Structures are given as structure tokens and as C-alpha cells.
């Protein structure tokens, strides 16, 4: 799409009305952690910990049906020469703590004990760090581990209430040098399917058949349009389309199952329904794209990249019945149902946007919120129902340290974030003015959890899971520890 063919509904952040922009809130509630403040360094708010790993934990996954079953993976196992390993543990063993009077804290000997969690199974066989884990959907039959060695391993996971969990290695595959990410397909018609992105720019889709011992990992599709590392990917809520982005600044939305092609909505290459690259000046992000999220209603996607840039792109509306094809046998670019329209170009943060999340909050009418976390330590929240106006700008949400992940508690106004400062925080976004809990003031900070090393001291929180309710948050730390926090 050329720069002269600018859709009327494309919105640049510098064109937003002043009244649409929420307040900027500096998070001054927390003292900076340093080597001289030993009390903060030693603070541990967790109710349980898993400390078997001997080095960094890069990734964490939660079973979709049994949320207490957690998998973590990282750069080293129990032995010094173990280059990559993962573990399964049961977070339900963590004992909740009763509400205690304030005076209880004055007696260190009376402090409640933190539960040490044991390993249920060890994931072995990777020759380099495990940096991606996921369970397949919808039932979590298979755990997939992926590594910087280019391997994916499929582990059949049988959860048996009477005997615990039984894990069996089904098989492995290696088609690339390094794997950056893995995402499970939510399509009920295509269970046990995953997609992955590699450092050579390729994208692969596998279906895993636990009953086929001779060939359990079957390649469904492979794509090679990205010309640099494929940095992130996400499925649409129905699992029909897969969106991926790259360091080369390109975005492709793949018609994995041919559903769009059957409706005449595929591009001329026959593989994608949306193709945007840096050659389109309106879409160009110098330095590349590194994060992606898709609207729960499937109307748009958001991708973030270098310099704080965010692009909002419409997705095609697929129908149950295929419409008649055009004379060209393809789609009409003027038809908004085909997708690929740049709805907004946002730029409110000073450094790369490494994590994005989208949620539909429970209001009448529903409010669609988009949260973006940046390397500059800030979190910006946009209101998609108000043409992506800024609702809240949390400057220094994780002090000056990178925000690693943001994720909404499903169908709520609650946002959880973690960063390289070693802290996990929970935010309430229900108002753009003075809002939040007793600890947060106008920032909306409800709660924060400490326990990991951070502040540049060989630590930081590299990931977390929080289930469907957000009642418990389980983390993976750069310090080699997984912690369980209770809301």
C-alpha cells in the first residue's frame, strides 16, 4: 500500500485530540533497589518457590486444563555441563497464607514459611537453552519445548488425579538453527497444532498426533517470506489465521488452513491474507517489529517494534459461507472485510515495544484495551473503542528497566506486568483519572510482588503465568528461580 493511498480511518498518535489523552503517571511509590538497601533486596512476597535450575529460566507455560501444572525451561540443568533443561512442577502444593495483623511482621521468627516445590519431571535432550514452552490446545495433551538448538520436542502429558502426571517423549524435529517462539493453535477443528518462528525468518506449523509413534510431528505448512529473524507470532481467536512479524519490519497473516482462499480473500501469493512490509512507508518501522497481539474479537492486530512504534492493522472477516469470487479470483482491496488496513500508527514510548496485550473489558458496551510494554520501562494503555486514544501512560512502571511482559486477566480491567527490575505488578485500569487500590494512588497500582533479583544485578522476571482468574501468579526468573505469588 503506497503512502498516497492513505485510508481515512488511519490515525496517527500525533493527531489525537488533547481530551482523548489520559494522564501520565510516574511510578514514584517504590524505592530504587540497590546494593545498599538490603531490606528490599531480601524481600520475598512469594508463598512457594522452585529453585532446582542452576541458571536462568527463560520461559514458562501453564497447562490449559490443570492450571496448577507448570513447566519452566532455561539455560542449564542440575549439572554444569547441561546446556538446556526444563522441569514440571505442581503449584497447588503452595500453601495459602492467612491474613495476618500488622504486628505479625515485627516478629521475624513468626513469619510464615515459604513452600519448596519439587520437580515432577525433567525435560532433557536439548543441546542449547530452552527458550519456548507451550501445551497444545484444547486439552493440553502435549507439552512442546523449543530451543536455541533449533529442536522442538513433543512430550505427551497424562494428568491422572490418583497417580499424578505421566510424561512420555513422543518425538522431536529440527528444521532450523534457532527457534524464537512457539504458539498453540486454538482451532477446535485442528487440535494439538503449534506454530513456531525461527531466526532465519521461516515459520512452521506442526500438528502432533500422540497416537502415531512412528511420525508424531507432522509438518502442516512452512513459510519463507520474512527475510530476517521471525520475532513473534499469534493465532486469531478461532485459529484460522496466523500472524507473524520480523526484524525486517514485515507482517504476514497466513491462511494456514485455506479457509480465506476458499472465500477469495487470499493474496496473489496464495498464502497470506495480509502482507505489509517496510517498502510501504506508512508501515515502515526502522529497526524491525518484535511483538504482536490480536484482538479477542478478531477485528485487528497490534504489532510493536523499535523506537516505540505500534501499528494497528485490520483483520479480514471470514464468514461461514464462502462468497462468490471476484473476476480476478482474488479479493478487492477496497472491501474492508478483506483486512490489511492500517487503522492507526502510534508512538508514545521512547524505546522498543517488546510486549503487547489486548483485552475486552466488562463494560456496557464492552471496552477494548491495548497495553504496550517498552524497553524504556513504561506501559502505555490505549482505548481501541476511542480510536486508540491513550487511556493511561505509566511512566517508569518498572523504573528504568525493560518491561518484559504485559498480560490482562481475561475479561477484566486488571493488567499484570513483569520486568527486569525483578518485580511483578498488578494494575487496575478502570479509570483514566484517579484510580487504583490503596497502594497505587492515581497510577492504578493494586499490588506488587518481590522476590527475584533485579535492578541489573543478574536478575529480572522473564515470564509469568496467571491462569484465567489471576489469583495466583507463577514466575520464571533470570536468577534461576520460579516463584508463586498470591493475589
Automatic annotation (TrEMBL):
InterPro entries: WD40/YVTN_repeat-like_dom_sf, WD40_repeat_CS, WD40_repeat_dom_sf, WD40_rpt, WD_repeat_multifunction. WD repeats lie at residues 123-156, 223-256, 396-430. Residues 1-33 are annotated as: Disordered. Gene3D superfamilies: YVTN repeat-like/Quinoprotein amine dehydrogenase. Keywords: Repeat, WD repeat. The keyword Hydrolase does not apply. It comes from Hypocrea virens (strain Gv29-8 / FGSC 10586). The lineage of its organism: Eukaryota, Fungi, Dikarya, Ascomycota, Pezizomycotina. Transmembrane segments: none annotated. It comes from the Eukaryota. SUPFAM superfamilies: WD40 repeat-like. The keyword Zinc does not apply. PROSITE patterns: WD_REPEATS_1 (PS00678), WD_REPEATS_2 (PS50082), WD_REPEATS_REGION (PS50294). This is Anaphase-promoting complex subunit 4 WD40 domain-containing protein. Pfam families: WD40. Residues 9-33 have a biased composition (Acidic residues).
